[in-house]
Write the structure tokens for this entry.
Amino acid sequence: MILQISSLCESLRSFPPRRACEPTTRRLSSTVRTRMCARVVRACILLFGLLCVSSPILAADPCGQFVPGYSRLNGANSEVHASVVFDDGRGPALFVGGWFNAIESLRVRGVARWDGTSWSSVGGGVYGRVDALVVFDDGSGPALYAGGEFGGAGDVSASSIARWNGTSWSAVGDGLSGQVQCLSSYDDGTGHPVLVAGGRMHVIGDNDGGYIAMWDGSAWTTVGDGFLFDSGYRTVNALATFVDATGPFLLAGGDLTFTFGGTPITNLAKWNGHSWSTFAGGTDGPVNALGVFDFGSGPSVYVAGGFSHAGGVSTPNIARWNGHSWSALGSGLPSTAYGLGVFDDGSGRKLYSGGSFTSAGGTSANHIARWDGTRWSALGGGILGAPTVGVLTMTGFDDGNGARLFVGGVFWGVGNEMPAQHFAWWDGIDWQTPDTAFDMYVVSLAEFDDGTGPAVFAGGYTQHGPGSRLARLVKVDHGALALVSSNVSVNAMATFDDGSGPALYVGGRFTDIGGVSANHIARWNGHQWSALDVGTDDVVYALAVHDDGTGRALYVGGEFANAGGLATGPIAKWNGLEWSTVGTPLYREARAFASFDDGNGPALYAAGRLQPNSSTRSRSVFKWDGSVWTNIGAPYEFGDGVVNSLVGLDDGTGPALFAGGSYPLFGGPSAPVLGRWSHETWSDLTYTLENAGSIAFLAAFDAGNGPRLYAAGHFYTFVNPGAGNLAQWNGSTWSSLDGNLDADVNALLPSQADGTPGLVVGGLFTLAGGTVSSRVAKWEVTPRRGNVNDGAGSISDVLFVNDSSGGTERTVSVRVGQRINVSLDAAPAGSGRGHYVVWGWANGPSNPVELRVGGQTIGCMIAPSPFHSGLSPQPVICLRGVGVRPQTCRGVLEIPSPPRVPLTVRAPGGRHVPTVVTLQGVVEDEASTRSKRVSVTNAVVLRVE
């Protein structure tokens, strides 16, 4: 076995896998290439060690979950592309579609419904993106049609277009191949309307026609010959129906410049029911939006896009066709327009347009403007953080709270610097967004009692796009948010009592905070800000409270050279009254501190890009014992990189200091670094991490099983890819915390400010373990519950519970053929409709184990897997409950609810084969957005003898 592993690792050294050494290593030096491939070799050793662990099951960690509702989005977590009002049988509601999978506090997929009070999922949504929504009646009643780029909707297969009847999704014929960007109904005058779809797609099976198709209720056909005439790029962005003296016709707009039948067609094409032709001379640039509106003088076609002329008439980016001629809307828009809409704010119906522009008709207007027939006007402060796109869709709707214009697109704020993620509404006077929503890129966290009780404080930036970030310090108290200070960039926070009472100290890149002049560091006593003398001459990155034998003091690290007017280098000390140097000054930059006792007495450890002198390039971790700095080196991968965080803990193997950060790969992304300092030597744990990303923060937290190391950043673990951006290290393997987070994590804070111990995390994410949590979330340990009763050869165990509880682990020795009663207890919360799934895997010899339920054999385990928690266990059997559609799984059996069935575990032929079988479970509630997986710790472990 050792020789096989050695051979495997040697082959990996010679032919590194793409994720480990390609393609970056092609551009690296031989030294760096050797380092990177060495990580793969060490990963082989790690894997071999795990395969050879004598105990069949590793010690598991308590089950935990991210707290639902801890924070929510101020809109949607990605782009909103379409909106429409539709009555699905429950009254009119606003439906929005896009590329999002969460909106406010709700998990959704690509489409969501707003009824004026709350958001709801639309039948499970779509598996992809939605670019167009329209209401159409194919003769069976009005229904909502969604187009985009997806492969399914709800529980049906649907290619790029699907139909929602208010109860369920259905496919629209065989669907379309490609991306549907716009939808519209069209009646050629025969009284038989058809649904028309445009985009960059074609009818399945018809590769000769493209980009526009129609559905007559039974089949898809290309509209005429379509627009696929050559290999050039074509796309249909907008559709509309218009009636002139010749009758109704379909108008298609997009990037459609070609010659058809000897006639040039430039971005606007007309379909009269029989053939395509040019429309009114077209435009000299792409068309993005079309609308037919009547403001009292008869219906007109309004066209928006990226053009300067329509039919030869100067019409910058927006134009009107009255049936006879083109005209401009004032002096037009200075840059591309993407959306059109009509809304009555109480003063009559007006035309609204959104796009990338920042003025309209010479009037300042950020990305959205109103045309009253004579002049353009702004909508308050408009849309913020939208340098290239802005507003894509606009729909007027009275949801019971008054008529409002709902807008969606690609933006991060509205009005006067009000955060709004891709969605907001205009009531005719002001912009509005959800209350208490959180939209801030969190980079630092701290717990502090400002006199009203302990609370979490978060520092970071609002997301108003590149170059327009707004720094903030916010108080998070039981999910409620309160702005403490704006325009202040906070990189680090710490609570320190200088003798006058506890206060919150903040460090970062600022020279003013709350109207008080303070250079890069300040003190908040819960009521007012104060400066620390003259502060530092450059940015502060780290703060720590430590007693080096001379009394507790605040240690400050950063990129400064002077603090309080003293030449301190990048590390200085504040005792509450004055600044002082810390030994012989170090060089470059300090980003992390840890107060830690390695067995030789407490000491302060510092790291970042620290050097012992100005000429040495080597980056190191330094130890301060109260009198002198000692260079203790660093993991070799650290090299020219940076240590972002330090933490000391005893994980059961003795006290150790952990250092996390990143180092640059030549010509490629950075790679994460993780090192462990113990017994005056470094051991490198970098090989447990994937080759791209970084570790931003490390924390020690005791979830009831002893202190463990928690790592945050942008990374994935090597042997357990399911643990990414936030993971727990138990000394031998990584595990996730109730699932992944969907973006970077920058800060961790063990806290019980709200009365319950947990780990608060902050970053750029919007989903935490499947729960909607915008930028800040809290992970709490699930209380153990359940019971196992021995007696008369039977075992009963509560294996399944609701979302807020866990099971309990119990290992029991049973005889071959012994019957075991497993109770699947506690139905899902909410509607009660849901399903239970139980699966198991075996650790031990190569003999399969037969599982029986009610005397019926329902599955055999494949060759038992030696893998443990965090290493992809082998599922072998599923018992499925009620209220769900069937799902393929080894040994599926339908069982009633509440499911209480006997389970028999025995070796084939009645042979005496010691085997360990672990059963896990999940309970899912159709009325909930969460599914609760019971981990190994909360499982039934059976040792068959």
Summary: Residues 1-62, 464-468, 783-810, 814-941 have pLDDT under 50 and may be disordered.
